User: Which sequence fits this backbone?
């Protein structure tokens, strides 16, 4: 068993050749399906009647290039340098590939290999005339969001009930209710990639102030294997008097999860926890469903559509409220090229120093989802009892970055488990590492960067 106090440079990254790993399964089965999905999407888009012949012909060339990529993955061919597409980052990608050395699809660092795929796809599109701004994953994002109809409508109702129509969260005499609301909304953001709210505490306003409400929330917390909610709340209470309290949210998935993230941002503003919220999106389509700038307007387009969401009573109250946050500048969006690189966040200090400074200046940084968690922890095979602070490396101790990770476990890395006995119990409960891979367990991990 490796030491629980390993140096970050000593921790081995997950490779796609790792037996029994999520990385291996992803490389062998998931990657080819993802590429095939992009091929199918382009075929459908090019078949539309109003697509001219030049654009249609170009789509065929793109599909051929994507088929070659898929075949290379299926045949476990070596990763090769990316061809120039006029973008300044290609050189850095190829330098990192050269530093890794000889590797193939089924034997490469998982984090690099997976990031490389999405940059490869974007290189193909960037090199085209008619498709360079096309999102090959948009139709998947949209259809998945629409399937979340019941959860969206239920959550709209819940939000208007607990925040917009009451002042409980701002009432100084009801601190316990405020904390319970914070826990509930944090869990909404945590479990936001689910298509229903079965893991969330569905409490009435009165429930928040009694034992039943606490029990309901605690029950939903059972599968949160590292839960630092109390630490986050203590930090927020201790620093509530700061004049500027900008919260940064590093986004994950579009659709329902992004909806929950926008609600979380609204909650932080409505309750005075934050004075402003900045949402970090990706510069181009990334990991199928990550939020890009066009996905922001797409969210509102769908929320305002009675065809997509016919139960309008609460959505018609909520959506204008959310729109106003964006219009007024209380919620803003930003992007940085660093988010679409293969680098772990450990390298932010040297690769993106201006971004690192922005996060240092933030009141609270909230990192959403599995990929961001993998990058926070350098996608390393840490002992599970390693502290979150240690696994953060340069973003941990004395970094000045107050960072909260909300992540459902869907890969091979998980730290912050308090004891080995707890790890053993989880392995017995969900054998074969299922508790770090199946998405049914989660972490709410916080480090204050002191």
Assistant:
């Amino acid at each position: 068993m490796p030491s629980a106090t390993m140096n970050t440079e000593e921790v081995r990254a997950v490779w796609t050749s790792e037996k029994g790993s999520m990385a291996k399964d992803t490389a062998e089965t998931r990657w080819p399906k993802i590429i095939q999905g992009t091929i199918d999407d382009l075929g459908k888009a090019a078949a539309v009647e109003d697509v001219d012949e030049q654009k249609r012909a170009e789509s065929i060339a793109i599909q051929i290039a994507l088929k070659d990529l898929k075949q290379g993955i299926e045949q476990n061919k070596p990763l090769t340098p990316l061809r120039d597409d006029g973008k300044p980052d290609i050189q850095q990608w190829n330098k990192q590939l050269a530093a890794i050395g000889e590797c193939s699809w089924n034997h490469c660092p998982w984090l690099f290999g997976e990031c490389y795929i999405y940059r490869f796809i974007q290189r193909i599109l960037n090199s085209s005339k008619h498709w360079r701004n096309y999102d090959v994953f948009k139709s998947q994002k949209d259809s998945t969001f629409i399937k979340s109809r019941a959860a969206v409508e239920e959550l709209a109702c819940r939000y208007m009930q607990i925040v917009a129509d009451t002042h409980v969260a701002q009432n100084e005499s009801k601190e316990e209710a405020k904390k319970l609301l914070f826990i509930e909304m944090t869990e909404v953001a945590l479990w936001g990639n689910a298509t229903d709210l079965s893991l969330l505490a569905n409490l009435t306003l009165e429930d928040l102030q009694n034992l039943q409400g606490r029990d309901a929330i605690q029950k939903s917390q059972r599968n949160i294997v590292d839960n630092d909610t109390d630490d986050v709340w203590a930090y927020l209470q201790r620093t509530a008097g700061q004049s500027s309290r900008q919260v940064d949210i590093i986004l994950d998935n579009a659709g329902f999860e992004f909806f929950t993230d926008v609600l979380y941002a609204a909650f932080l503003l409505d309750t005075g926890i934050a004075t402003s919220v900045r949402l970090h999106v990706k510069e181009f389509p990334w990991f199928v469903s990550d939020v890009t700038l066009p996905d922001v307007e797409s969210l509102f387009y769908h929320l305002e559509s009675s065809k997509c969401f016919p139960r309008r009573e609460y959505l018609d109250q909520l959506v204008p409220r959310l729109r106003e946050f964006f219009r007024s500048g209380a919620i803003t969006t930003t992007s940085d090229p660093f988010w679409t690189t293969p680098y772990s966040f450990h390298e932010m200090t040297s690769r993106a120093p201006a971004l690192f400074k922005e996060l240092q200046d933030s009141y609270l940084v909230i990192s959403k989802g599995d990929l961001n968690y993998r990058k926070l922890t350098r996608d390393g095979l840490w002992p599970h009892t390693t502290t979150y602070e240690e696994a953060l490396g340069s973003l941990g101790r004395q970094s000045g970055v107050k960072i909260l990770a909300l992540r459902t476990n869907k890969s091979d890395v998980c730290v912050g488990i308090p004891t080995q006995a707890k790890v053993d119990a989880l392995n017995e409960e969900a054998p074969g590492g299922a508790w770090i891979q199946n998405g049914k367990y989660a972490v709410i991990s916080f480090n204050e960067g002191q």
Residues 195-214 have pLDDT under 50 and may be disordered. Strands lie at 224-227, 246-250, 276-281, 331-335, 364-368, 403-408, 442-447. The chain has 17 helices and seven strands. The CA atoms of residues 58 and 128 lie 7 Å apart.
